[in-house]
Amino acid sequence: MDIFIQQIINGLVLGSMYALIALGYTMVYGVLNLINFAHGDVLMIGAMAGLTILRLLDSAAPGLPGWLQLGIAIVGAIPVCIVVSLIIERVAYRPLRNAPRLAPLITAIGVSILLQTLAMMIWGRSPIPFPQVMPSDPITIAGALISPTQILLLVLAVAAMAALVLMVEKTRMGRAMRATAENPRIAGLMGVDSNKVIVVTFAIGAALAAIAGVMWAANYSTAQFAMGFVPGLKAFSAAVLGGIGNIYGAMLGGILLGLIESLGAGYIGDLTGNFLGSNYQDIFAFIVLIVVLTLRPSGIMGERVADRA
Known about the structure:
The chain is mainly alpha-helical. It has helices spanning 2-32, 39-60, 66-93, 102-123, 148-170, 172-182, 184-189, 194-220, 229-242, 247-271, 282-295; strands at residues 128-129, 139-141, 144-146, 222-223. Strands 1-4 form a two-stranded antiparallel ribbon. Strands 2-3 form a two-stranded antiparallel sheet. α1 (2-32) runs antiparallel to α8 (194-220) and α2 packs antiparallel against α3 (66-93).
């Protein structure tokens, strides 16, 4: 039972990060009908920016509590990610809104490679140890262990997702985003500024990616220029699993994917002598993606976004 609870905790931590990243995918797809494959690299930029801020804090104010240092790193990484994401939208995606769908997809892959190359030039090729600012002693819950960093990660993920839901459901901008996702032409006729909605959507997605990036690096104690590629693909799988275009589906898909990976790595690894254990846990995300695309392409939540000519 202790092992089961431990795998559930690990799955919730991992799934929370997937959910934060998947929300960026699903929001952009809902508004623009575009898969932003550069989104995982925005996470990497957030982690690298957070790393740089923590280094500056270590020299300028070394006595700050760990949770406050991580909070400052996240607050500083968010505007960096937003600026990068808005530049991507303005330069790479906006000119291609009326182009064939393959063009933005190829452009997104090119932007991803460009961001990785720029990060490699700025921060280097080798993995960089991420400062361990939170206490390392784990906390015991029902026989399972969870670190203070993971607790902070869960709290931030829940708070960020709750704030997003309130914004989408209760604010005027949220209604404009839902209207644009439903039908951008009619929303424009009703006075909705689609460009403003798209900019806000990219900014929100980038902010969530910044939170996920800093906490991902803090949880795994390392950061590097290519760290966003695999989490980005897995978060895309989570968005498809939950129902791409649906923010609740992205949250559900992220949590489920994290649990599937954790339980699969823990239990299937034991049954196979670790042949399919933690060293091969990445395959579970893509097995899920293949199964979902084969049996239920619209995802668990089943929301379909109308095709746009």
